[in-house]
Write a structure and sequence with these properties.
Distance between the termini: 60 Å
CATH class of the largest domain: Alpha Beta
Order of helices and strands: EHEHEEEEEEEEHEHHEH
Number of helices: 6
CATH architecture of the largest domain: 3-Layer(bba) Sandwich
CATH topology of the largest domain: FAD/NAD(P)-binding domain
Number of strands: 12
Shape: globular
Low-confidence stretches: none
Helix content: 25-40%
Largest sheet: 5 strands, parallel
Oligomer: single chain
CATH superfamily of the largest domain: FAD/NAD(P)-binding domain
Number of domains: 2
Structural class: alpha/beta
Strand order of the largest sheet: 3-2-1-7-10
Length: about 270
């Protein structure tokens, strides 16, 4: 690893790339998303089937929301084009058109039409045929590739072009990277999986509301970590997922305000 906090570079700030970045950054990984503004979705006239927008959403507002979300999660979103990705002893070096150079433990290729920046890597990502295409057959379901630490998210991984599907795959890639990091930390099996969700505090009742019950669970789970610090961290994380009514209301109000910041809330007209 390049440092105490693993680093992730995401190439492409469309639905797949932004979603991957949200997951890795929320986990605490140092995440940079490079986006030069040329995602294929920007060519769409309107987005009509992305869940959560009953009347659809224009691509410009969608991208503003996606990038705002990535930044809120902790990503650095940079307007620059990645020109090369190179293997190093500890991971990768990423170079850009504006002469930036970053070291990264993980790289997510989340661009659909441009993958020349991967040409210097010791793997063939081009499918033979009349037209040059990205070879999705070398990409695993979770976005993994033959090169450790290099992931592919979105359509080039063989998933459908629809924005909602691409975003879902980006999230899957983000979780796969988190699982890699957790395995490096000492977690194994199901304990390497990280679930990023919150629960209502009033549901924290019964036997599972005690640390003793979780310790018993870990004692009997075959793939539980032996390290006591890891066990305590795992239990702490479980309890940290529960939030009370006051915090839920604060989060709700903040969420609504942030959404409103992106909307044109001019005077409504009726026919």
């Amino acid at each position: 690893m390049s440092g105490s906090t693993p680093s992730v570079v995401v190439v492409g700030g469309g639905p797949a790339g932004a979603a991957a970045g949200v997951f890795t950054a929320r986990y605490g990984l140092d995440t940079t998303v490079f986006d030069r503004g040329s995602s294929s979705l920007r060519r769409a006239a309107f987005i009509e089937n992305y869940l959560g927008f009953p009347a659809g959403i224009d691509p410009e507002t969608f991208y503003d929301l996606a990038h705002d979300h990535a930044r809120e999660a902790g990503c650095a979103v940079v307007d620059d084009m990645v020109t090369g990705v190179f293997e190093t002893d500890g991971g990768f070096r990423v170079e850009t058109q504006d002469d930036r150079s970053l070291d990264a433990d993980y790289v997510v290729a989340a661009t659909k039409y441009d993958w020349e920046y991967l040409d210097s890597l010791p793997a063939d990502f081009v499918e033979d045929g009349e037209y040059e295409q990205f070879d999705a057959s070398i990409v695993e379901q979770d976005g993994g590739t033959p090169l450790d630490g290099l992931y592919v998210a979105g359509p080039n991984a063989g998933v459908a072009d629809q924005a909602l599907i691409a975003a879902g795959h980006g999230a899957q890639v983000g979780r796969a990277i988190i699982a890699d990091v957790r395995r490096a930390d000492g977690y194994e099996g199901t304990f390497a999986e990280h679930y990023d969700w919150l629960r209502r505090e009033e549901n924290l009742t019964g036997e599972w509301a005690t640390r003793e019950r979780w310790q018993e669970y870990l004692d009997n789970a075959p793939d539980a970590p032996d390290d006591e610090e890891l066990r305590e961290r795992y239990i702490d994380d479980r309890f940290a997922k529960y939030v009370d009514a006051e915090e839920r209301e604060e989060r709700t109000q903040k969420a609504h305000r942030r959404l409103a910041d992106h909307l044109d809330l001019g005077e409504e007209t009726t026919d």
